[in-house]
Amino acid sequence: MKQSKQLIRRTVILTALLSTVLQAQAAEPAILHVSAAQQQQLGIQVQNLAAPATDTRPAPGLRLSGQVVSPRNAQTLVSPLLSGHVQDVRVSAMQTVKQGQVLATMISPEAMSLQREYLQLAIQAKLAREKKERDEGLFQDGIIARSRVEESRALLIQAEAGARERQQTLKAAGFPESALKQLVQQQQIQTTLAITANSSGTLTELQLKPGQKIDAGMPVATISKNGAFWVEFQVAASLAAQIKTGDQIRVAACQDALRVTAVAAHVQAETQNRIVRAEQSKPESCLQLNQFVEGRLESAQIPAASFALPRSAIIQLQGKSWIFIRQPQGYLPVAVTIVQQQGEQSWIRAVQEKQLAAGAQVVVKGISGLKGLMLGMGGEQEGDH
Predict the structure, then answer these.
(1) Would you give the DSSP letter of residue 353?
(2) Among 40, 139, 187, 255, which lies 20 to 30 A Cα-Cα from 216?
(3) Taking 80 as the threshold, does the pLDDT of residue 48 lie above it?
(4) List of domains in the chain
């Protein structure tokens, strides 16, 4: 009976000691001893840990390729209001133009007809003005009745309204104010009509050639107004899911990052890619229309005092994240906290701060073999990260 009690007491003590040892191992895993032959067999490779980020900064993310385009609301069409035949073309596509600059000239019988009508109405308005002034003088002298003066005033209003209507039509068609004054003064009708730029910018399209027949309202040129550009990036559908509106894309030579304003919901039939559109916050000379550019996504933020590692260098075990540090005696499992991830890159901090320092040799290949050794010490696998 006495021996039985002693046996029970010894069993309890041994159980308590074993529990204490296992808890210590769980809290601070022992160094994994691996022979040179085992290292070669497992294919273990290490990477020196770079110095941690000293402050919060954008994380270098996906590399993207795209093309500079003009914003849809910054494009304007040039369309003559009158018909005619192109006489000569004075500009070429992709040329910078200024508002009012002559793009081409054309011979327009319709323009000549409008000039003739305007000239006639302008002369009628001048005569009506002179008649009104004469009738007002006669009325003041008591020679004619008030009704005659009112009739003269009404005729003047009608004549001036008709002249203004033709004047506005000619202005809209491309006749400057100086040309209309010259028409009235010299009474000489112009045989050609200028097609002018309605905005300053880049002439992205020009559909004119000498001898071409132009119908009224026909688009003949497209101008991209000066201002901030868009960049449309071609992104694989699987990667586009990582990009969201508001993310920033850094383009080389540009001072400010571009802001993502739209991610296409559907893929393009030809490329099977999705379009990601990013915009400049202000105009910069680093981007030129139709230019192909390379960019890097900066959606994530690197927290201060965090170390960068490949995502594959981290395992999940016992509900924690772990990495392996090579030491003279072997490989030490170190518990870490993942503070940020971007693509295949992770940023970590050690659970026990002193266990990680710049220059530490972190295992980046052969992880599964070391994890197996760690499991052999009593851990439970919960799946790779």
Answers:
(1) G
(2) 187
(3) yes
(4) 27-58+303-375 (2.40.420.20), 63-72+226-299 (2.40.30.170), 80-218 (no CATH)
